[in-house]
């Protein structure tokens, strides 16, 4: 079972271990509602990405996030931005746990910080995800701004991984980004738009930080295909707004199914729910034997994360599987 607890596992691994073809993959936090416009995009693979096209995409993304384009630059995924920021700031770090394993890897020195703690009054970089993964925790923007004030007074920085914020727009601090604030945000394209393979993300921050990241990333930070996907998808405001509503509705239905079987879905991010049981690995195994892949964790064997089923049929299969176990 280590392939699933250490790295999340893959559907191919599950098929090899358990057999079967008709699998439902609930192991990720990626939206099951894929942006539909990608099938109609034309990408010119003969030339390097056009800087004007890159600027146009950044303008579309910035408008969606609520920030001026001067305060945003493109990345090949938000994780790349986190690793760059850790090197650039060159100061001790604290990272709010539980969260991504990556968060503890980007600082040369530092220590984890529990959610109930307050940031120390010293020059340090505090990194957290909001909404968080795997527990879906959402910290109110007002609280984060208090932490930002405290960090700035000490010469520190607040770094917020907002990879899931498109699904919960009200939690974002994008409107607070500016040259006078020691605030850096990371955004992800693939999770909300259901297109993780595009490998597209953004850094939002003071113009001096953005300029430094641009120099480090070079003239072509992402492919022409990523630029085409990003430009068209961020322009599709109606789909974005409708999908935010749909995700909330589907998450409520998932909560109902879990509750019917005595399980409480934790978290405020509609793309997944975390449940705590006596033995998360045992529940993972029983669902996998019914061709439903979920996400267990080495950090806490009581945890099991379930992504959002894509449709009523998938939700009904989960309902029946939970009844069987």
Keywords:
325 residues; globular; 11 helices; single chain; 12 strands; 3-stranded antiparallel sheet
Description:
By secondary structure, the protein is of the alpha/beta class. Helix content is 39%, strand content 15%. The protein is built from 11 helices and 12 strands. It has helices at 2-7, 11-18, 51-65, 78-89, 141-153, 190-193, 207-217, 224-235, 237-260, 280-288, 312-324; strands spanning 24-25, 72-75, 93-97, 110-114, 125-129, 157-161, 183-188, 201-204, 272-276, 292-293, 295-296, 303-307. Strands 2-8-7-6-5-3-4 form a 7-stranded mixed β-sheet, sandwiched between helices. A 3-stranded antiparallel β-sheet has the order 9-12-11. Strands 1-10 form a two-stranded parallel ribbon. Helix 3 runs parallel beside helix 8 and helix 9 (237-260) packs parallel to helix 11. The chain is globular. The mean pLDDT is 94.
Distance from first to last alpha carbon: 19 Å
Rg is: 20 Å
The overall strand count is 12
- Helix/strand order, N-terminal first: HHEHEHEEEHEEHEHHHEHEEEH
Q: Strand order within the widest sheet?
A: 2-8-7-6-5-3-4
Poorly predicted segments: none
Sheet with the most strands, sense and barrel status: 7 strands, mixed
Shape assignment = globular
Tell me roughly what share of residues is in helical segments. 25-40%
Tell me the number of helical segments per DSSP (H or I, 4 or more residues long).
11
Structural class: alpha/beta
Determine the mean pLDDT: 94
- The fraction of residues in strands falls at 15-25%
């Amino acid at each position: 079972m280590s392939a699933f607890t250490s790295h999340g596992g893959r559907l191919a691994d599950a098929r090899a271990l358990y057999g079967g073809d008709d699998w439902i993959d609930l192991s990720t936090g990626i939206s099951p509602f894929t942006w539909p416009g990608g099938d109609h995009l034309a990408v010119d693979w003969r030339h390097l990405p056009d800087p004007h096209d890159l600027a146009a995409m950044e303008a579309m993304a910035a408008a969606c996030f609520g920030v001026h384009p001067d305060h945003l630059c493109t990345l090949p995924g938000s994780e790349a931005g986190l690793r760059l920021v850790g090197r650039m700031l060159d100061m001790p770090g604290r990272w709010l746990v539980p969260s991504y394993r990556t968060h503890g890897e980007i600082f040369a020195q530092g220590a984890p910080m529990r959610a109930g703690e307050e940031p120390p009054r010293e020059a340090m970089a505090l990194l957290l995800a909001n909404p968080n993964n795997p527990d879906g925790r959402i910290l109110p923007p007002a609280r984060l701004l208090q932490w930002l004030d405290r960090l700035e007074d000490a010469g520190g920085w607040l770094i917020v991984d907002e990879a899931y914020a498109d699904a919960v727009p009200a939690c974002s601090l994008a409107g607070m980004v500016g040259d006078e604030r020691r605030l850096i945000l990371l955004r992800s394209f693939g999770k909300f738009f259901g297109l993780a393979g595009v490998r597209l993300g953004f850094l939002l921050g003071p113009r001096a930080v953005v300029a430094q990241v641009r120099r480090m990333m070079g003239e072509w930070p992402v492919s022409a295909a990523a630029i085409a996907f990003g430009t068209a998808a961020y322009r599709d405001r109606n789909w974005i707004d409708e999908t935010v509503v749909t995700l909330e509705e589907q998450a409520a239905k998932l909560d109902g199914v879990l509750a019917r079987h005595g399980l409480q879905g934790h978290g405020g991010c509609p793309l997944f729910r975390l449940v705590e049981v006596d033995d998360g690995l045992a529940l993972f195994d029983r669902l996998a034997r019914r061709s439903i892949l979920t996400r267990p964790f080495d950090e806490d064997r009581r945890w099991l994360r379930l992504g959002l089923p894509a449709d009523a049929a998938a939700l009904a299969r989960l309902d029946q599987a939970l009844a069987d176990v």
